[in-house]
Amino acid sequence: MPLVNTKEMFLKAYQGHYAIPAFNVDNVDVMKAVLKAAENTKSPVIIAISSGALKFIGENYIREVMDCAMKEITVPVALHLDHGKSVELCKKCVDLGFTSVMIDASSCEFEENIRQTKEVVEYAHSHNVSVESELGAIAGIEDEVCVDDKYGHFTHPDDVIEFVSKTGIDSLAIAIGTAHGAYKFKPGQKPQLRFDILEEIEARLPNFPLVLHGASSVPQASLKILNSYGGKMPEAIGIPEAMLLEASKHAVCKINVGTDIRVAYVGGLRKALVENPEKFDLRTFIAPAMDAVTALCEDKIKNVFNSAGHAND
């Protein structure tokens, strides 16, 4: 099945009140594990590649690897650049064969954000590639995304109509309380998404797909495995999955998850290394790590994004 852009995905998700999972992958093993989960659950999925992952996997490999993988996949899959920090990188990824790109100029002044986003939109749309952009700032650190304010700066509902109309974007990432990384909140602090802001934005942008970044939940089961086998992440806190499920019933058509993938993979790897000290076959250790990612993604697809079974909508 060929890769697709996200326009039709989001239209169906909006109408069906579910969210498309956008799983950040750092290597080919994780990519295969994510695709397996999507295939097993018959869910559409977005393979999200950060600039760091692109360098790690290799610019000249990523589209070839995806095309090879898609020969066995029957569900809709989009290849997406996550947090493209420059117009040039977004254009490069369009040329590399990505079917969706995110231009993240949210740290710029409003007018400069519009200018950069519009330039990417004009180039991407001429190649049938979808474009996502961001208003507001998501707290935390992920690759080169760094926000000083722990809680970020919420998206202003009054800005969204002008931004969308002037740029022509296909989806908008908003800041309503999510945060990048595994340490989103202080111990004892109660995570809270600003559904009031979400509803205001929905009212101003009817039928328009919204996106949540920094939406890992840091599941305690995955965290327990990682810490039981030598990991040291006792204070990691994420976004409650019930809140994400609620968001998916609104206009949030895409939810990004990266940290949870890494915690599951490393936990599975640590467990296999400890339990098999006499072995040195890489497959002994990597296969359980991949299985952990697949299980995590299947659980989120079924119970958080509500996208299972929607591949053929």
Structure description:
The chain has 313 residues and is α/β, with parallel strands linked by helices. α5 links the parallel β3 and β4. α5 runs parallel beside α6, α7 crosses α8 and α11 runs antiparallel to α12. The chain is built from twelve helices and ten strands. The chain has one domain: Alpha-Beta Barrel (TIM Barrel). The longest helix is centred in the last third of the chain and has 22 residues. The strands form two sheets. An eight-stranded parallel beta barrel has the order 1-2-3-4-5-8-9-10, surrounded by nine helices. It has a two-stranded antiparallel sheet with strand order 6-7.
Helices, strands, pairings?
Blueprint: H1 7-16, E1 20-24, H2 28-41, E2 45-49, H3 51-57, H4 59-69, E3 77-84, H5 87-96, E4 100-103, H6 110-125, E5 130-135, E6 140-142, E7 145-147, H7 157-167, E8 171-174, H8 195-204, E9 210-212, H9 220-228, H10 241-248, E10 252-257, H11 259-275, H12 282-303
Parallel strand pairs: 1-2, 1-10, 2-3, 3-4, 4-5, 5-8, 8-9, 9-10
Antiparallel strand pairs: 6-7
Helix pairs in contact: 2-12, 5-6, 7-8, 9-11, 11-12
